[in-house]
Amino acid sequence: MRQLPAAAILATLLAAPVAAAAQEAGDKGKGLDLALRVCANCHAVAEGETVSPVDAAPSFEDIADNPGMTGMALSAFLRTPHRTMPNLILTPDEISDVVAHILSLKDGG
Ligand code: HEC
C-alpha cells in the first residue's frame, strides 16, 4: 500500500521530460525539410503524398490521420530504436520539428 504513491510519483517524474518535449512546439517547416532528407526514402512525407516508396511504411498523412496519434505518441516512437528504421537517431529538436510537421498533416490536409 505504502509503495503505491512512490511508484506513482516516480512514473510522473519519468514521464515529465517526454511530455514537456512533446508539448514544445516544433518548427514544421524544418520538420518537412528534415523529413525530405531523412524519411522520404521510405515514407511519403509531404502533404498530398499518399504512396510511400516503401510499401510497409505508412505515409505521414496516414500516420497523422490515425485518431490515436498524438505528438506525445510520435515523440515517444521516434525516441525508441525501431527495428525497421535502423540507426534513425534524431535530436530532441529534430523530433519536435518532424512531429510538428506530421501533426500539421492531420485531417486530410
Ligand atoms: C529505411 C526506411 C525508413 C526510414 C528511413 C524511415 N522510416 Fe518510418 N517506418 C518505416 C517502416 C517500414 C514503418 C512501418 C513498419 C513498422 O512500424 O515497423 C515505419 C513506421 C514509422 C512510424 C510509425 C507509424 C505507426 O502508425 O505506428 C512513424 C511515426 C515513422 N515511421 C516515422 C518516421 C520518421 C519521422 C522518419 C524520418 C525521421 C522515418 N520514419 C524514417 C520505414 C522507414
How would you sum up this structure, described in words?
- This protein is 55% helix and 0% strand.
- By secondary structure, the chain is mainly α.
- It has a single domain, classed as Cytochrome Bc1 Complex, Chain D, domain 2 (Orthogonal Bundle).
- Helix 2 crosses helix 5 and helix 4 crosses helix 5.
- The termini are far apart.
- The structure holds heme C.
- The site of heme C has 20 residues, from helix 2 and helix 4.
Itemize the secondary structure elements and their pairings.
Elements: H1 3-23, H2 28-38, H3 60-65, H4 71-79, H5 92-104
Bound molecules: heme C.
Distance between the termini: 49 Å
Count every beta strand, where a strand is a DSSP E run of 2 or more residues.
Answer: 0
Count of spatially separate domains = 1
What sequence of helices (H) and strands (E) makes up the elements?
Answer: HHHHH
Low-confidence parts: none
Number of alpha- plus pi-helical segments: 5
Task: Give a concise summary.
This is Cytochrome c. This protein is an all-alpha fold.
Features:
single chain; mainly alpha; Cytochrome Bc1 Complex, Chain D, domain 2; 5 helices; binds heme C; metal ion binding; heme; signal
